[in-house]
Design goal:
It comes from Cetobacterium somerae ATCC BAA-474. Helices cover about 85% and strands about 0% of the residues. By secondary structure, it is an all-alpha fold. It has one domain. Helix 5 crosses helix 8. The longest helix is centred in the N-terminal third of the chain and has 33 residues. It is globular. The relative contact order is 0.16.
């Protein structure tokens, strides 16, 4: 059981995580919107898409594997940089899909996120027991997705999106559960809490964005 001080500290930690995640989403959305207003920027993104995606991957790996070596301030800056670069990539989505369709799917994604967040916070079950399932599911999803880039089988693409929606919906609750367990680690300094709040924000940001994109592939209406 938590005492009142522990509950207050826990809530402060979670607020920091959610605020950073929300900031990341705002940056991504803002950058995407700005890019689609400019033809030169759209051309730039199209020409350097591969480079941008590789840079994104390196940033995520840098945050995750270098978190013990970098400061909390550096971790935040890397997360902001990743959010901005992801905005460049997702600007393509804003060109493909109807704006009203994007807003609708964004609303559905938000509702799912809130629901699974509440479940992850309230459940008494230790979701870490599903760690192997989630890791295996993510690896399988990446492999099959890469294969379908070459096979281009539409029904397989649909199946991948369905599986991804299920997986990332469950991952929201799982990651929330993990974030709470980070808070419960008594050997963490204030600097550690600051760094891991950024890691937590990144995890939830990725869950949200991937859930949104796969719901959009399933239910989004494309521009004619």
């Amino acid at each position: 059981m938590y005492n009142s001080i522990e509950i207050s500290t826990k809530n402060s930690f979670l607020r920091k995580v959610f605020m950073q995640m929300f900031l990341g989403l705002l940056i991504t959305g803002g950058v995407s919107w700005y890019v689609v207003q400019s033809q030169p920027l759209i051309s730039f993104v199209a020409n350097y898409m591969t480079f941008i995606i590789v840079a994104e991957l390196l940033l995520v790996l840098g945050i995750n594997f270098g978190i013990n070596k970098i400061s909390s301030g550096t971790a935040k800056l890397l997360f902001i940089a990743y959010s901005a670069m992801n905005g460049l990539v997702l600007s393509v989505v804003m060109l493909i899909y109807n704006p009203y369709s994007i807003l609708y799917v964004l609303g559905v994604t938000s509702l799912i996120f809130v629901g699974m967040t509440i479940y992850g916070l309230k459940t008494k079950e230790d979701l870490s027991s599903y760690d192997g399932f989630f890791k295996g599911g993510l690896i399988a999803l990446v492999i099959v997705s890469l294969l379908n880039l070459f096979l281009k089988i539409s029904i397989l693409g649909w199946f991948i999106s369905v599986c991804a929606v299920v997986l990332f919906t469950a991952l929201i609750a799982y990651d929330i559960n993990r974030i709470v367990k980070i808070f419960q680690s008594n050997d963490l300094t204030e600097e550690d809490y600051n760094k891991f709040s950024t890691i937590g924000a990144l995890m939830l940001y990725l869950d949200f964005v991937n859930l949104f994109l796969n719901l959009l592939r399933l239910f989004g209406k494309r521009n004619n």
